Amino acid sequence: LCELIEDHEDWEFDPERDLYTDEGKTGTLCKNRDALKLVIERAKEGWYDLIVIREVSRLMRYAWKALEIIEDLKVHNIEIYFASEQIYTFDNEKNFELALRAALAQQESEKLGSRVKNGLKISAGNGKITSGFNVFGYDYIQEYVTENGRTVKYGRLKRNETEAKVVIRIFDMYLDGYSQKHIASILEAEGVVGKNGEKI
To answer: Which of 29, 31, 101, 170 has fewest C-beta within 10 Å?
Structure first.
């Protein structure tokens, strides 16, 4: 994107101030999209009249939410340029294409989410875990299995007897009417800590 911006001499851009990234964050929801929220907020305050985004799917993968953001910015006379699709939101002739691309991004996101969930469900049904889970009460055991001629990394959870006793005790205290805060204070006073040494 920086190279694209540099090609437009009439665009004012300071990479130290004007570059926003939500690294590793899903485009499905606004939650935890701090950079997106900030650039929109600043644009409305008059910092920007044009926001450049790599592609439609990076704005938001729910079609209605993406279009809602676009329309909201239009009201404030702020345009978005989607570089991959070469679409300016002020170009009314592109409205249908923009809506279609937003819908396709949502569909692709939903398909991917469904495939991931199904894969995890199948693995769990087979007693396999595909990533390391730091679950209090269990130890993560990593294993390598050969499937269809290739080595696949899996894992399984093995009950940690010492931690399991704490988990059972927590449930018992909760059923006896103890509040979460009271339970936490008791465990803290006894020096009970989580997997990484943090407070329970």
So the answer is: 31
Largest Cα–Cα distance of the chain, in whole Å? 69
pTM of the full predicted structure?
0.50
Q: Which of 89, 96, 57 is nearest to 74 (CA)?
A: 89
C-beta atoms surrounding 112 within 10 Å: 12
Look at residue 108 in the predicted model and tell me its pLDDT.
Answer: 76
94 in helix, strand or coil? Answer: helix
Residue 91 in tokens: 């170009």
Take residue 27 and report the two structure tokens written for it: 């485009």
CA distance 48 to 63: 24
State the DSSP code for 157: E
Q: Three-state SS for 19?
A: coil
Helices (H), 21-81: 34-44, 56-59, 63-75
Average pLDDT of the chain, as a whole number:
80
Tokens 């004007």 found at: 18
14 phi and psi, to 5 degrees?
-120, 110
What own/partner pairs with CB < 8 Å and gap ≥ 24 does 107-114 have? 108/57, 108/61, 109/27, 109/28, 109/57, 109/61, 113/28
Q: Is 160 helix (H, G, I), strand (E, B) or coil?
A: coil
